[in-house]
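Re: zinc ion structure - here you go.
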Amino acid sequence: MAFWPNVVVATPAHSGVAEGLCYRSELSLAPGTLVRVPLGAREVLGVVWECPDVAPAGLSEARTRDVAGVLEGLPSLNDRWRQLVQFAARYYQRSLGEVALAALPPQLRDLSNVQLARRLKRSAGAPPAPAQGMADGPALSDEQREALAALQTAQAPVLLFGATGSGKTEVYLQATRHALQAHADAQVLVMVPEINLTPQLEARFRERFEPLFGAGALVCLHSGMTPAQRLNGWLAAHTGQARIVLGTRMAVLASLPGLRLIVVDEEHDPSYKSQEGARYSARDLAVYRAKVENDALASQGARCRVVLGSATPSLESWHASEQGRYLRLAMPARIGGGALPRLRLVDMNHQPKGAVLAPPLVAAMAERIARGEQCLVLLNRRGYAPVLACHDCGWKSACPHCSAYRVFHKLDRTLRCHHCGFTERVPRACPDCGNLDIAPVGRGTEQIEEQLAGLLADVKRADGGPARVARMDADSTRHKGSLEAQLATMHSGEVDVLVGTQMIAKGHDFRRITLVAGLHADAGLFASDYRAPERLFALLMQAGGRAGRDAAFMSEQGAASEMWVQTWYPQHPLFDALRRHDYPAFAATQLAERESAGMPPFGHQALLRADARTQQAAQAWLNAAAQAAPGLPHFADVTIYPAVPLTIQRVANVERAQMLVESASRGALQRFLAAWQPTLLACRSLPEAKGLIRFAVDVDPLTV
Ligand code: ADP
Ligand code: ZN
Ligand code: ZN
């Protein structure tokens, strides 16, 4: 007797293999079994999706290859996991194999059964008995207690709308403890936008739970791990050894058989949406995943809860909570009763000509430093200046491979393209006319750091020492450990002013920052991207949220915390809402605009993206696909816009174009996109599309 398992393998994107491949097996293999199968000349990892005992119609039995082996000792991937993967593949228009295999650690393929057994044995053994009577964390505030109680009984996804410093993390910690203690096999998934940016969070989880559940109780899953670390983390989660998985967006697809709670911290963060491969939203998949778990748990009277937390929720989640699809729990007050920072707008129209930092802002910073307080200066642009230019002939530091300028980095005297990485030493003179006087235009974090060091040179700290300015951005944190080291100098008070990109605005719990300044915010006010205001508002609120977090310190200091914003448009309505810390009002105006324009979350979008040797080929392929669309199911329910080049049209000599597809109905858009796939593949071979390199469908894109 033979079986004919359908096995999903990592099919390259757009190979046209939407579902699994058929193999032969002597044994009946349970769905979810991990196997090795031959594929071409290689042997690859696969997941059994189903295993009928009759050969599918039309199969050539003689040409069907045998399953090479089963990964022994590994429990199979359960139905809920497979349902999640299937949904993700369908919804984001990718192949099952691509999504399934991307969710598995690549090293699994290379392990022999002996090696696997050794690994499993090492991680096995009864989990350490919970230590009793361990510290439970601080007594909760009333708001925290109410939120936690509501969360425990919630029947819908929860949106935890908590001000910066309201103690959301403490709610996650206690919800985690309750979930883990309720059931011996329970597991909790905690997702964060970028683990490395917030080492404090991991430390808080370890400190709280390792004494209770043992050192192996918490594992991390993120793309910065070595293949071996990823394998171990994944195995621990899959076998139930790990009770808590702390991870980035990829962790949403981890195998977690005992899942009872999912936390999505800073749920508004764009990094939850992946920008390559299967372009899924981990936040949205988290909500779906909880639903799948709940359908299965219903009969046991148990639930898997999902919490999305933010001080500035995404408009999608906010809208869902307005409609009652999500349960909104508000924690407006800061722990200790501290105030949110007061907004100080600096009208740049009234500042000395050419001033990069307004004198009143510099004076305010000097005062803060003298009192032993710290400042944060946010500028979302790294390097010294975005462009280097010759004022004689008009030469600019364009990247030869991209339609973008190379950024001037003064510290190592390079011109670096932030899109393709192309780097050269700064020329001594203008490459076109020989003029020696080439100059930076605009500013980046390096320049602000340099200027501030000069402007604050005479300022003395409370301890009499000179004021110290530091910088934190992708350049300064490139080396392993440097981010932690830089954060440590902030926490210890060694540094008085930290200049940096958006990474300084993330969830850090700094205790002595009392002033935050945002420079160059105006770019976000008038950007063509309709999500730009939402992102700017969130960024400024989050940055401001780093100030005045320690109520006791603030009252000792006797001064209120402040959020300064330099702008040429102080009357802009966005600043009104920001001044009042009024996210609901901001969201209401944004949602009203979106509704009248049929934009998400009221309408639904997908982008068809094409990369090609020439812009013409990219657009020709898109247009051909559009021309072939009439007649497809639900064509009447979608609007297809003309193909356009991307804002940065060429990157690393690849031309990029895209086409927006919109529909008032999510379901109609889904079915249309699925029906369109064969056309998209077929159009690749059209003569006018010659030079097409790749294409992608991006469902619910973040930038259009
Ligand atoms: P959020 O994530 O909402 O910005 P955090 O969870 O980081 O806020 O909490 C802010 C600060 O308040 C942290 O230093 C945290 O340790 C502290 N904190 C949180 N909850 C409590 C509590 N119930 N009692 C005392 N301190 C708390
Ligand atoms: Zn020149
Ligand atoms: Zn480039």
